[in-house]
Amino acid sequence: MDNCCAGNFFKKKQSLPIDTTFKLPVPVSNSSWPPGGDFATGIIDLGGLQVSQISAFNKVWTTHDGGPDNQGFTVFEPSIPQGFFMLGCYSQPNNKPLFGWVLVAKDVCCENTRNPALKQPVDFTLVWNNASMKISQDDPVYVWLPTPPDGYKALGHVVTTTPEKPSLDKIRCVRSDLTDQCETNSLIWESGSFSIYDVRPSNRGIEAPGVRVGTFVVQNGSANPPSISCLKNTNTLPKYMPNLQQINALLKVYSPNMYLHPSEEYMPSSVDWFFSNGALLYKKGQESNPVPIAPNGTNLPQDHNNDGAYWLDLPAGAANKERVKKGNLQSAKSYVHVKPMLGGTFSDIAIWVFYPFNGPSRAKVKLISFQLGKIGEHVGDWEHVTLRVSNFSGELWQVYFSQHSKGTWVDSSQIEFQSGGNKPLFYSSLHGHASYPHAGLSLQGEDNIGLRNDTDKSNNVMDMGAFELVSAEYLGSAVIQPPWLNYFREWGPKIDYNIDVELKKIEKFLPKNLKSALEKILKSLPNEVLGEEGPTGPMVKNNWNGDEV
């Protein structure tokens, strides 16, 4: 092939983000944590099957086209420790530094038993090759799906650069009772109807046994569930979770710093500061006789109902209301909930922050920005970020940023860290207090019309290392939940205003063709964003027992 024709398929190699391997600013290892129990010991026993988390890879193949930022994707094989076997290859987009993992496995007994945990496949099926694709690449690629023996499941693909089938000894399939159903997660790369996704367990939560393997799936069309499975932990899920001393050590290393916006008027506070500064408990039918809230919320209802019979509100008196609305950053602390996730192979450390008041929202309509009257205002605002830490090593892999009723997971390779350490930095949006990994404007809407979420650095910084561990159910009586955590009613009253009236006040300043677009976006927002009803506390949220998304 001459140089002219070759240019259609092979473009000059250039440096890509994936050519660099991301490491935490300060290296951590199994020895970084206090001893005790089975946390961060490098291997997890899922019940007859031992697995290890591998993040050292050998590159198999890459393309430089398509995918995020049109930079392509790369496939890797794990570097496998002696005695372990590959369950599948790893892949990620090229627009980020290399930062990922896959599990490798070892049968606790041996392969000579009648029903070992691991078996070789009986064959391979070619599920994709790129012969007909005009994409920039290192070599041809062939992606193979193992054909498992009866009673076994494939957990990943083998990738080669030659058309010959891989050796059957290249990979292992897993006995079906040690597997769980998967679902596709984030898109790695696609071309036409052909797609590559990473996968995760379909059922996720503090009691869900599904274990993410870290492999990827190749799909033609929209086939779901995927052709591969996840692992299942048939052992005790909390067995590899951190103890109290280890939780404290993790938070000493990873507790984030939160920047509040330079124009923020409504600061966080501690829950007890809110209570001791005149917050009131109201009961339906007795609105004229609210009750002061006792320290730690000991007089709050504890029956786990949310029937609208009780709610909290700011103190009586206009001056006191305005004072408490502003919060008290000096008193603020974070409230920590530690829970097992992904079959107990990770610890999710949810870090909650309380604000006495959520300020009015701001909108952007093309080039015009303005405040939305009362829209967005509500008493009592709970926000959180979640650290996802490996129970194999104690390494921080992801951070979840809650953003109103939704949120997003961000890899550690894509977040900001405090200089000289592993403490993430993040930003609280002006008035709405949603959490973002980087400063700037995030617009909740479309076509340059929607709700503004403005973030920036300021002198007001909350160190979440000042924390109270309020729950870690797996530790039993070692962690006592404060009474206010078991208050399931609203932390603020229902706001009595008409959204249509508020919109009319705003829309008279807008060009006619933009009014309906703004109204459509605002009315699609959940009530907690609009401020029509007070939010519930952390324990009432779906993510208390479940995954974040």
SS-based structural class? mainly beta
**Main β-sheet, spatial strand arrangement:** 30-29-28-25-24-37
Q: How many structural units, i.e. domains? A: 2
Tell me how many strands there are.
Answer: 37
- How far the N terminus sits from the C terminus, by CA atoms, comes to 49 Å
Overall geometric form: globular
Low-confidence runs of at least 5 consecutive residues: 1-12
Number of helices: 7
Main sheet, how many strands, which sense, barrel? 6 strands, mixed
Helix content: under 10%
Strand content: 25-35%
The average pLDDT score comes to 91
Please compute the radius of gyration using only Cα atoms.
26 Å
Organism: Vigna unguiculata (Cowpea)
Protein name: Vacuolar protein sorting-associated protein 62
Pfam families: Vps62
InterPro entries: Vps62 (IPR009291)
Keywords:
549 residues, mainly beta, 2 domains, 6-stranded mixed β-sheet, 5-stranded mixed β-sheet, 7 helices, 37 strands
